[in-house]
Each structure stands twice: as structure tokens, then as C-alpha cells.
Design brief:
homotetramer; Aspartate Aminotransferase, domain 1; 14 helices; alpha/beta
């Protein structure tokens, strides 16, 4: 039986969906609506998202999951000889089973620090290296930049960083695409200065993550650059991303974008993440990297980890050395205050100082 | 506003899910379970399906939709130089936006009659044509056969037909794969003599359709041939078919395969389909093809169609000539008896005889 | 030992290259030139081809063979959701081992008669069918038209036919691409009214076949539409089509396009083809289709075929029935007058009348 | 005019082919032979190569170039979810315009030193990392190893190194594939202890480079592992690698593998390479890496480079810093002794000591 009996900090997708979503699903279950995402709930959700983006011109599509969203966007954005720049630790480079290569394109990795970010100057350098090479036709052409917000390691790009990335992309005719699997946690994080409207201004496309931010399933792709709008629905269908009962996702985003629910539930998770981070520092634990969002990465002494693991579920991140392991502690909309307090107490008991 | 105000016969995916499914989703919503389909509900559902298949050795995977299921199976079953034989009207040839070609493979169409079936002798002939050709390396190699049950046109392969197809495939080292988007309607149809256990005996893989048979989303892929088991999960992930909250689909199949629900709801839809077919014949309408399942195809006089369309929603199939149109009339688990009766009465009023 | 001891009519690629080509290869063998097709001979050949095209703006690339040329052009011309219309008997549909599908695209076959041609109205109809379909995103989008000149069956599109095809393509925003593996035989054929300049005016791209028209290896791709120029060399390299010693092909086209050699040698072959056709008709043989070029297709009584095959090599085309076989009789620049006379005499001896 | 007027050290593919090859091409030009590589010259060449390999069971195919050879082998050796391990500087990772990704597969780069080699322990580590990862289905599966002999930087794997690589590959069920674009220069290099027979014993497949070792065009793929034999010709055709006049390449390998010509001409080039290396060291030039073959990499002071470049052609490799540039000096079968002596004298004149 793998219903979890331990206290859950392994991920932000172990639970069902927020109760407001479940309520509307239940209420509307027996209604007949047009299939393939042309239903009223999807339409309402699109309108709500456009409003939050302060942009009526974007196209919004409801897709199934992160890997597929990335694959669909990049498949249509890249020509056969082009690749996409991304952090070496980027999800498309490491954790999508080669989905981008499966559509024929090379992921062009850039070095990154523990925070998982890449910089405008790295992008500029990569562009120059390619386009000043006499043998450029022997080398995959960089056509765009992929970043994730929050990054794989819970960091959040600032408005300044994003603006710089956007600028170099515009200068060099590269697209800028944001994987927002955990965008809610970024938007809600303390100190964040980036809005959805900023993303519309600075990027060519991004997706607003649902699955990891309170929905049962689904992501909302926002396409800003008109060049990427026309053919998009064909590619969605071709990649198996068009749901017959498309309202399943539309309806959820309608709920999430009503009364600020999306931000509210993510903020709560971020606050709990930060509370854990504070305690970790206070009790002398080594943080693997700085994070202001719902994912915290900590280097555990294996003995301590063993003790804590009797009661809590964390996610394995990587082995540091023979006696230490990096683990992810993850909160979500469904994390309970009492569980946080319990964890903090146990961190105190096993204090490293 | 596209919530339908007409009586719905356009498709079998306009409504939500069966209420028993909704009940369990609601009840389990706040439970924490392991992600990526390794939860207890998915495990239970797999066990129930294996039991119904009378086969403990098959592998069962829960996937998102039909196009993706077909693409995933064929991507791993075909080598780069191979293609798949299918009816010219087959879904993969006509309605999946080139998903099979997108993974590098040619669909090799065979002629078919109005029922959408292909025969063992056609497969044998195609095999011989390829493998006796001196220039065979210039031609795509047929590696397997795709059929759908029910077919695109609502027909059901008999046990004899399936056995013959299976035999030629085994003889010629071709795989046999069944697209079961509407498998429930086939299994429940009057006169059907094929069981899930037969499919396990006669095919290499098939999927049991959920989306069009009472679920909110999801299909259950059953892999029989061990050769196709090992790598399957990698391809699922690569194609974006691995749900973080995989229990969403597992849970639904658990309900559908409890107390015979899957067959019961499809039988009801089939019976209503047959009732419509009977009335159509009785009142002199021309049937486009014979169907014993939940989809009926009728050639309407455009004037009559216009009148009926004020009250009912059908699906456009094709234009027959300037004054006639082929329409699909579709029933499902959610079709109401009273709506059937109303339709029949209106068919009578506009009687063709 | 498979050096042929019979008289060769099986194909137009059994011999080496025209002696003028061999001469220049020998003479220049020890010169050092820049690699990857940036040598002086390739430059000269491009200039000669542009001159013959009466068009300085086209781009010319030297590629290795027909299958690769088609694959490279279509790979860059088609977006992921698009396919290419072609005759059901077209080379890309039947004889390239799925090379187009391997790059992710569906070949969209159109019915054709024995001559292997398709018409403007067929293209128009296919376009309308797609773009007026409510479910068009479920269906591969036609983006262009592939034809071959001569066709697979030796027929030649007239200027009128090409102009009509070009017109519908321009109207519907489809590209028109011509596979010219045997373009020389078309240009040189009696009654032909299409020039290279016409092809530049009417198509988006075409290639001038070398391998089957006197060269040792190589085809010259002419790209007219600026949209397809920029990225072309990247795709050539990616598909393995960029020769380190690129001059090998450039040099050959320099010779072929000097002093009208290309047309002259093809004309001779056409004339011999027509001489054979005349004799076939005169002596009562059934022609499989009409051809005015170097390939003739004849339905042989198997007994007669057996006798002729003791002395001559033809190419098997298809089995007609139990007692008849369709064979191709092919001439080329290297066919000898005496061999033609010998064949005609033997056709006479085995006369069908 | 880009016929080179300077003394040529830029590459080993600036000239035509060895005169013995040209002789046989000329002599056989007007013979008729079977097309598509089924001619007598290709058969003879295969027999000669098998003999040199001391292995009658290998399959030999004549292909067009290096990028295509790699793409064809890896396309058929890799399943859709698999990738190939290679040195970060490997040709398939850096200089083939994404040809491997174009067929759907990720290149999995391993760190390497200046010599461009990877080690058995790196391969072992990569295998363990993948197969002990709980989330391995989210990650591209390593299925084989690509190395080049000589490496990109002119280094030669020793028998010991190759044996270790082979052992770990066999243990872990990985294939070992060798890109032999410059295999002749490796086999002929001073101190080399690896034979073609060793390669047959230790690898699954490798190709013997022709283009850069005296041929006009062409590489000979040797397939050892029976698993990779059956489908190979289909993939060759699909990738556009099947020449109608296939004898063009077969004939050249027949000459190269007669009377030890292949090794003899490469040995001469290696010796000249080593002579240059010796002088570079003697005159105080900084070598970029150690090479015992025909490619030498040297860090030039830009002023010196400018002077030398008035008389000699080298290949740009990379910019080291503002005042230094790494250049490749390349010899081949066609390099003249007098040109080597001239270069050495000029290196002396511009001596760094």
C-alpha cells in the first residue's frame, strides 16, 4: 500500500487538487460542453488569465503537463537545424527523457551556479560564438533561450535579470521561453518583483503551472509572440496534447484565477518553505543552495537523515559524499501548519550546532 | 456561451465522468500518494484489469488520450525503417495530425469498405509484396498492423476476424495492435464474441479507452508481448505521457473495473445506438454503414437535417452530395432515455417513407 | 562477377560518367582547393547554371543524390504539422524508404493515371478539403506540392500543366517543388516546351539531376524562393549532404553545363527511347504508358521476355498477370546505336503481330 | 578564384584522390555494372577489407561521408529513449549540425582532456549514475559509446585503452562504435598497437575513413555485431546514403586496400606530421596538445601567425587569448616533402627561443 503514512515533504504533487476546484468539477460534471477545449470554462479561464496578464492579445492554451508543454512549444519554435540554450541543470536538459531531442533538436547547455540561473551575458557569448564561427553550418544554431521560474533549485529570476535576458534575446533575434511549472511559487515569493504582465512584455511564451500549484492536472501556455500562434494548435494535437474533455483543465484554471486563489495558495507554501529554511540555518544545517520559494535543498548528515526519514518523506536530490546527502524539502498548498511545526521541532532536536 | 442547450448526440465526450468516479475522486482528494502512477489506486486498477484479462503477465499503463497512446506504442514498436499497416480510414492515418509520421514512421494504408475493417488476406498480401520485392530496401518495411475496435465507423471485429488477423501477424512476424478508444462499446455490443482475454491472446498490445467510455480522461494500455514491455515507460515519459498526479487516471479505471461498470455503461449506450439505428431504418433513412455500437452514421437530406439540427446536436461526418450530408449520431453513458425517445419521434415525423 | 555481359537497358546509372567529365577530373586531380563546396569549380558551375536559368538570384547547391535532395528540401520547407502533396506513384511516396516520414512529415498521396502526373485541380481540391474542415487541426496540413519531371513513368509536364500547378500553389500559399532526377531527359524531349527559366518562374525549388544524366554522382538544387534559402546549408550539413571534397560534384556540373553537353546527351537518349517506343508499337507490343523520354514501359508476354532476357537487361517494373510482366527499357548517354538496332531487330523477330 | 596559391596545410581534403584510384576510375569508366553497390568492385573491396580485418563475418557498407555514417549507424543502434556517450569535443557533439539529435537522440557528453579521449571508468560511472537513479525513466538512457580514432585532436587510443572501453561496454550492454574518419592515420602512426582485427574484436562497428585518407569520397562501415546488420541497408537508403552508382566508392576502397596503399599513404602523412611537431617543439612553439598523427595543433603568437599565413594555409582551431591563436597544421598523402621543409625553415626563422 503506497498511500503515504509519513508526513509528506517529498513534492508538491502528492495530493489531489484544491477543494474549490473539486467543488466546481462536481457541480458541472453532468453538463454537456463542446469538446477539445472549446467549452465555456476554458473560455472563461482564458479571459481571466489574459486579464491577469493585462494583455488581451496573448493566446492561451491548456496543456497536460510540463514535459509536454516544453516539447510542444520548442517543437514549433525551432527549425530543424536549431537548438535551445538552457542551464546545464535545466529540466529539458536533464529530466524529460530526451523529449526535445526526440523532436529533432539539440539542447545547448550553459554552465550555471547552484541557483540554476543563466545570465544575459552567457546568452550573448553563445550567440557570438556561433555566428562568428566560419564553420557555423557545422554547428547547431542557437535560436532561443529556455529558463524556468522558479528554477530547478527554487531560485527566482528578478525583474532586472529577466529584463537583461529579454534584451539580449531581442537584440539577437532569439526567443525567450519560460517554463513555469512552479510559476505560482515564484510570483508569490517574498521579494519577487516580476508580474505576469512583465512576463508578457519580456518573453515570447511561458506557461503557468497548474499541476504543482494546486490543480489536479494541467498547465496554461501563454503565447505572446504572434509568430508562434498560428500553428500551435496543430502541434498540440500532433503531440497528443489535445484533450477530448478539454474543459477538465480549463475549469481548474478558472478556479485558480478567481479571487487570487493561485497566488494565495502558493504564497502560503512559500512562507512555509521560508520558515523551514530559517530553521535549517538556525539549527546549523548546510543549505545546498538559497531558495526563497517552496522548495528547500539541504545537505543532511546521513545519520540525521535516517532518523528524520522515519517520520518524514523528503525527495532525494543527490549524494554529496559518503556521509552526506542532499535532500529536497517541498511544501505545497496542502501542507499543514502542524506538520511544519513538527518538522521544525525535529530539526531542532537533531540540531547541528 | 458554448454550454450546449440542444440535445447532445454529437459525441461521447461532451459530458464529465460517471458519478461513481466523481465520488471516489472527491473522497480521496486530500490523500497523499506517490507520484507518477506509482500510487495505490493505479496499482488496484492494474490488478482489476489483469483479472478481467485473465492474465497476470501483461503490463498495464495509464495514459492520457488516444492519439498519445497510439503514438507511444508505435514509436517503440517500430524501427526507423518500418511502418504500420492500417485501414485507409484509420484514426492514425486520418485524424492524429501526423503523430505517427512525427515520430518518423510511415502509415501504410490499406483499402477498406464502409465498415472500416481490414482483413488477414490484405495483410498477407502487403507482406508478400514487400518481402518479395528486389528493391525492398527502397520501400518502407511493414512491421505491424493497427486496427481499431470498434472501428472508426462503429463496426466490431468478430473473434474469427481477429483470430485470422492474429494468425497472419504471427506467421509473418508482424505485431497486432488494437486502438480501443471505444473498446467498451465493442465489448458490450450485441453479438460481440471477443473478450479482453481474447485480445490478450491474439494481440501484442491494445488500449482500453476511458475518455469516451465514462472517464474524465485516460486510457489503459495493456502490453502483452514481452518485447514491448521493457522500454515502454521511458517512451511514455519522453512523449509527455507521464502524469505527476498519475492517480487521476488509475483511480478512474479502478472504479470502471469494479462491479462491471465499464461494460454496463457501454452496453446501455450501445442499446440506445441500436434503437436509433432501428428507427432510422424503419423510417426510411439511408444508413452510411452498418454499426452495432454507440455510433450511427446516417445520410440526411439537408432539409431534414436542418430541421433536426434546431433541436439536436449531431457530428458532421462528410458531405455526400449537394443535397445530402453524412452525420454521426452518438450515444454514451450519459445519454438520457427521454432524449432518445424524443429523437426517434422527430425521426418519425420527418419520415423518409 | 556482376560486371554486365548482357546488353544494358535496365537503367541510366549502370555506367560511369561522360568522358568530358572524366577528363576534367583527371586534369585537376592534384589541385588544392577549398573544401565543402567553396571551390572554384563549384563556383563556375553555379554561374553556368544561373546563366542557363536566366536568373542570377537563385541559390544553387550541389547535393549527392535524389533521395537526399528531396529529404533536405522538404525537411526545411515543411513545418512539423505539415505534409506534402504528391502523386500516389511519386518517388517520395514509394521508393525512398520513408525518408520524408523520417524527418517527421506525412506524404499526402493524390490519385494519378499511368503517366504519373497530378493536376492543378487535384491540388486545389486537397487544399479546400483541408482548410474547410472544422477539425483541420486533427489532420496533416498540406504545405506544398511535389512533382517529378520526367515523372516516374517517363511523362513530361507541359508548360500549360506546370503553369496551372504553379498558379494554384501561389493562390493557396503552397510551395511547388520539382524532383528533376531525370530533368535532362525532360528538357531534351521532343515537344517539350518547358525551360529552366520557366522552372525558375513557376516553382519554388527544383533539382537538376546529374547521376542519371551523365554524371558520376550529384544533383544541382536550385532554390528560387528566398524563404527557403537562408537555412538550407545547415540542413544539407545535418543530413550528411555536405561533401568535404565538394568540388567532385561542382566540377561535373561545370562540364555538363558547358557547350550544352547536358541537353545533348539527354537528347540522344530520348531519341533512342522514342525509337524503341516506335518499334514496340509497330511490332504490336503493349505499352504500359506513353513516354516521350528515355524510359519506356512495356507489357511483355513472359515467354517473349524470357527469350529477350538472354541477351538484354531490362528492369522489372511490376507483374501484370500470370503470363505478363511490365518491364522498363531505359536508355542513357552511354547507350550505343548498335545495341538499339540489335534490340529492335529482336523485337521484330518476336513480333506480336 | 579559390584555387589555393599558398602552401596547403589546412586540411587533408583539399586535393583530389590518389593517382592509383584515378587510374582505375578512368579504366573502368565505360563498364556497365549493377547499381546500388552491388557491383563487382564493391564486392572485391569488401573482400579485401574483410581479409584485412581477419574476419569474414563482418558486414561492410560503402557510405558517402563521416557525418552521414555516424548518423546512419547511431540511428539504427539507438532506441527512441536512448542516447550515446561521447567526449564533449566529439565530432557528433560539436560539428555535425545536430545530425544525431535530428534522428531523435541525445548526445551524452563526457568531460575530456586536450587529447579528446574518454576512459572506461567514465563510461562505467555514467552507466551507474543512470541505472541506479530512481527516476531513470526521466533521463535519457545511455546505450552505447562513440569514440573517434584518431580523436578530434589527433590522439590515438592504445590497445589497452580500447580493450578497457570494450570491456566496460560488454559488461554494461553498451555498444562501442568508432568514428574512423582518420583511421588510416591512427593505424599507420608510430607506436600504434591497434589493428583492424582488434577493432573487429573490441567494437560493435567502426568505419574506415576514405575521404580524408586518399579517396575522392567515401567511407567503409564495418559492422561486427550481428544485431546491427539486418536493418542497416534500409537505414542507409532512408538517409540518402545509397548511391545509384555505388561502384564509385567500392572501386576506391579496392584500390586503397590493394598492396597496403591505405596504410602507406597515411604513414607518410603521419611522419610528416611528426616532423613538424618535432620542429615546433625544437623551435619553442607551444603545442596545444600532443598528437602522433597527421594533425598538429599549435598555439601561435598572432604576429608570427600573420607572417606565416602569407605563405601557408593552416586551419583556425580556436582563439586562445588576445595575442595567441590555436591553429591546426594538417598533412596528407598529397603533402610534398619540399613543402614540409619550407615550413620547417620558416618555423626556424620565426623561432620562439
Amino acid at each position: 500500500m503506497n498511500k503515504s503514512t509519513k508526513i509528506e515533504f517529498a513534492s508538491d504533487y502528492q495530493c489531489g487538487c484544491h477543494e474549490e476546484i473539486m467543488k466546481l468539477m462536481l457541480k458541472t460534471n453532468l453538463e454537456n460542453t463542446t469538446g477539445y477545449g472549446e467549452d465555456c470554462y476554458s473560455e472563461e479561464a482564458k479571459a481571466l488569465i489574459k486579464k491577469e496578464c493585462k494583455n488581451e492579445d496573448v493566446d492561451v492554451y491548456f496543456l497536460i503537463g510540463g514535459t509536454q508543454s516544453n516539447a510542444i512549444f520548442l517543437k514549433q519554435a525551432l527549425k530543424p537545424h536549431q537548438g535551445v540554450l538552457c542551464a546545464r541543470t535545466g529540466h529539458i536538459n536533464c529530466h524529460e527523457a530526451g523529449a526535445i531531442e526526440a523532436s529533432g533538436h539539440k539542447v545547448l547547455p550553459l554552465a550555471c551556479k547552484g541557483d540554476g540561473k543563466i545570465t544575459a551575458s552567457q546568452v550573448e557569448k553563445a550567440w557570438i560564438e556561433h555566428f562568428t564561427d566560419d564553420n557555423q553550418i557545422h554547428i547547431v544554431q542557437p535560436a532561443g533561450v529556455y529558463i524556468s521560474q522558479t528554477t530547478e533549485n527554487g531560485a527566482v529570476y528578478s525583474l532586472k535579470e529577466l529584463t537583461e535576458l529579454s534584451q539580449v534575446c531581442k537584440n539577437r533575434n532569439l526567443f525567450l521561453y519560460v517554463d513555469g511549472a512552479r510559476l505560482g511559487y515564484a510570483l508569490a515569493s517574498k521579494g519577487n518583483d516580476v508580474t505576469l504582465a512583465d512576463l508578457c512584455r519580456l518573453t515570447d511564451a511561458f506557461y503557468i503551472g497548474g499541476t504543482k500549484c494546486g490543480a489536479l492536472i494541467g498547465e496554461a501556455m501563454v503565447i505572446v509572440n504572434p509568430e508562434f500562434k498560428k500553428d500551435f494548435p496543430y502541434i498540440v494535437k500532433q503531440q497528443g496534447g489535445l484533450l477530448a474533455k478539454g474543459r477538465l483543465i480549463g475549469l481548474q484554471f478558472k478556479v485558480l484565477f478567481t479571487d487570487n486563489l493561485y497566488i494565495d495558495i502558493c504564497r502560503k507554501a512559500d512562507e512555509m518553505g521560508n520558515k523551514i529554511a530559517l530553521s535549517l540555518k538556525k539549527f546549523g544545517y548546510e543549505l545546498y543552495c538559497d531558495s526563497i520559494s517552496n522548495q528547500q535543498f539541504v545537505v543532511f548528515d546521513n545519520e540525521v537523515l535516517k532518523k528524520l526519514s522515519e517520520k518524514y518523506l523528503f525527495a532525494f536530490w543527490e549524494k554529496k559524499d559518503e556521509t552526506h546527502t542532499v535532500m529536497r524539502i517541498c511544501t505545497s498548498w496542502s501542507t499543514k501548519e502542524e506538520d511544519i511545526n513538527s518538522l521544525i521541532e525535529d530539526l531542532r532536536i537533531n540540531s547541528m550546532v
